[in-house]
Design goal:
By secondary structure, the protein is mainly alpha-helical. The protein has nine helices and no strands. The N terminus is likely disordered.
């Protein structure tokens, strides 16, 4: 079957509130099922999973061991870590279910833009998580361990470490979504590529301010975070130009071929 031209009026499927709720329940059930399917085989390896997550901290602690201050922490903390890993691993499928729920209400033009943005956002989120684990964790924990005096015995609590690790991972995962946020701001008309380009000096300064709050107080650490944030902003401007150009070409084609 040949596709309908973009300029032809589309009739989007409309449903009742009940049908939307049934569809939402179905999508949520599939997403939760995917998480459980990933979680079940990981549970027996919960201790090993937590060892991998805590490796950046244990590598810089002289004793190489963490402290459990609560009786059930050695059980619940690794299980909590494994649940979070299962969610991270199943996230592409979960986001696909979100897409499948929203897609019927989008026009073809919107779908063509939304799907690449969804795929890119998933990649950028995982890139942010990897950057936090392999770059930021060793940097922050290495500084934190060497900062105390010889009279302080550093033995972090496992549950507090996991909470901090989750916070940092989510922070950097969301930070790496800057290009997607930039594209959406341009596509919705809130701002323009020209305005974003003019704001470069302010964004550059803001990137170092963010680095000052999220990293140890030294120039190297701040620069290590600020440069990726600013480069992501530049990537957002480039992506915005591309999507704006594609949308303009599509509009011109629709006008020329009524």
């Amino acid at each position: 079957m040949s596709e309908k031209p973009d300029n032809e009026e589309e009739n989007l499927a409309e449903g009742t509130l009940l049908s939307h709720l049934v569809e939402l329940r179905s999508r949520l059930l599939k997403a939760v099922t995917a998480i459980v399917i990933v979680l079940v085989p990981l549970v027996p390896f919960s201790q090993r999973v937590f060892e991998i997550i805590s490796k950046p901290l244990r590598a810089v602690i002289p004793s190489g061991q963490l402290l459990a201050t609560k009786p059930l922490s050695p059980i619940f903390t690794p299980f909590k870590a494994v649940c979070l890993v299962a969610i991270f691993l199943a996230m592409p499928y979960v986001l696909y279910q979100v897409w499948a729920f929203v897609a019927p209400g989008l026009y073809r033009k919107e779908k063509r833009f939304a799907l690449p943005l969804l795929a890119t956002s998933i990649f950028l989120f995982y890139a942010g998580v990897a950057f936090a684990y392999f770059v930021v964790f060793p940097l922050i924990f290495g500084f934190a361990v060497t900062f105390p005096s010889d009279t302080i015995n550093v033995m972090p609590d496992i549950s507090e470490y996991l909470d901090l690790a989750i916070t940092l991972v989510l922070a950097f995962g969301c930070t790496f979504e800057v290009p997607i946020a930039t594209v959406l701001l341009v596509m919705t008309g809130i701002t323009t590529v020209e305005k974003l380009s003019k704001a470069r000096p302010y964004v550059f300064l803001l990137a170092f301010v963010v680095g000052m709050f999220l990293t140890p107080p030294d120039v190297f650490s701040q620069t290590l975070l600020a440069i990726p944030v600013y480069l992501l902003y530049e990537a957002g401007i480039i992506m915005s130009r591309f999507f704006v150009k594609k949308r303009a070409e599509g509009t011109e084609a629709s006008t020329e071929n009524p």
